[in-house]
Amino acid sequence: MHYAGVHSDAVRRVWGSGAVWGCGIHGEMSRISTDEPIGVDTRFAAPTSATRAGVERGARMIGCGGPALGEMIDLGFGNPDLPPPQEALAAIAAELARSHPARYGDSAGTVAYRAGVAALYERRWGVSLDPDAEVTQVLGAKEGLHHVLAVLPPGPVGVPMPSYPTHHEAVLVAGRPLVGLELDPDDRDGRHFIERAADLARAGRVRAIVLSFPHNPTGVTTTRAMLEELVAAAVEAGVTLVHDFAYWATVLEERPSVSLLEIPEARSVAVELVSLSKSHSMAGFRAGALAGSGAIVQRVRARKRAFDHGLSQPVEAGALWALHDGDRAADELARRYRVRRDVLVAGLRRLGWGRVANPAGSMFVWAQPRGGLDDAGVTRHLVDEHGVLLGAGRDFGATEAGWLRFSLIAEPEVLDEAVRRLGQCALLGSASAPEGSLAS
């Protein structure tokens, strides 16, 4: 996908529920089940969400600034527009002022950093972790997922469909067969996804399962009871669970997020990835951690020694503030995303769109104007003709055509303007834009 010049290799797929495919790092597909997929593109794909030429037509990309005629509204890439907390930046600045702030760090993270992650888990979820045995630093959840899949035993990996593209890509780069598990945006507790995943685990169809709640792109959350069911199946079958917990703080309803590690039995089969990218708008600093199964954590820690030297000392200082003292800042960011969600969901529903998921978590809205829509073509048209940049559902492995992903990376008045422009797009089959502002 291309988002304002930012490129990531997107694997375009639409999987049938439970369809199993294998793929090497060059994208050659080998079918290993008898289920027919809805459609498959066998290559690492060219961009589908927008064309670079279309993006360059905009005078500038806008987010927190007010929209003006001819400006491009970027709601595509999930890149936080809100700044990190001032206290975190102050901690970074103070460390920069010390002598030797640019020396190599530790690929596992310092003792203080790992203890900070353990403190976060104890405070937020009542989970006691051994910082030495059960925590290691990763440079963001994305990098961490690649490392985890590289150290697991070979075999098929279950992945939600739709999902964050890195979930698909990491499986394919690791040279493992991928099992697509449909996750319906109306399934607010992820019940059907978890039941299907548990069934596949017990049947020996997968060796590992990637899950992520709150979920990108649908915003679906889950409950401890549902996760307990999946953990029981994983323990019984010896299947590894990998929970991408990137949106642990971006909760848009009163129900708190659930850590997989709250379930005691999970510690033997599961690891969890957390980061400060979305919780504290520190995406570019790449401060993350892997926690859980000591055996997997130690294998990842050993592997990382060959790849990196960990975070820089100044960034780690800012991360330590967030881990120990950043709860109020994270809650405030979640509140602002909640306001944006309410504005956008109300606007799309007033346009008469067919399905608009009301996310319980994450920083995205997943919506379908009407079934059968060519979402890739529509996203290109929206950039070229209306100056709105969105994500095409097929880039996330949507099992049905026509889905679009909105990132909540703009202030309410900008979202209001985006809705107005969408109302003028004949391809979406919507009525004219609603009168008056949706922002309140």
UniProtKB/TrEMBL annotation:
Q: Which cofactor does it need?
A: pyridoxal 5'-phosphate
Keyword Hydrolase, does the record have it?
A: no
State what protein this is by name: Aminotransferase
Q: Which organism is it from?
A: Acidimicrobium ferrooxidans (strain DSM 10331 / JCM 15462 / NBRC 103882 / ICP)
Q: Which GO terms describe its molecular function?
A: pyridoxal phosphate binding; transaminase activity
Q: Which EC class is the enzyme in?
A: transferase
Under PROSITE patterns, the record lists:
AA_TRANSFER_CLASS_1
Q: Does the keyword Transmembrane helix apply?
A: no
Could you tell me which residue ranges the Aminotransferase class I/classII large domain spans? 71-422
* Family that this chain belongs to: Belongs to the class-I pyridoxal-phosphate-dependent aminotransferase family.
- InterPro entries, per the entry: Aminotransferase_I/II_large, LL-DAP_aminotransferase, NHTrfase_class1_PyrdxlP-BS, PyrdxlP-dep_Trfase, PyrdxlP-dep_Trfase_major
User: Mind listing the UniProt keywords for this protein, alphabetically?
Assistant: Aminotransferase, Transferase
Q: Highest lineage ranks of the organism?
A: Bacteria, Bacillati, Actinomycetota, Acidimicrobiia, Acidimicrobiales
A Pfam family found in this protein is: Aminotran_1_2
Reported EC number(s) for this entry are 2.6.1.-
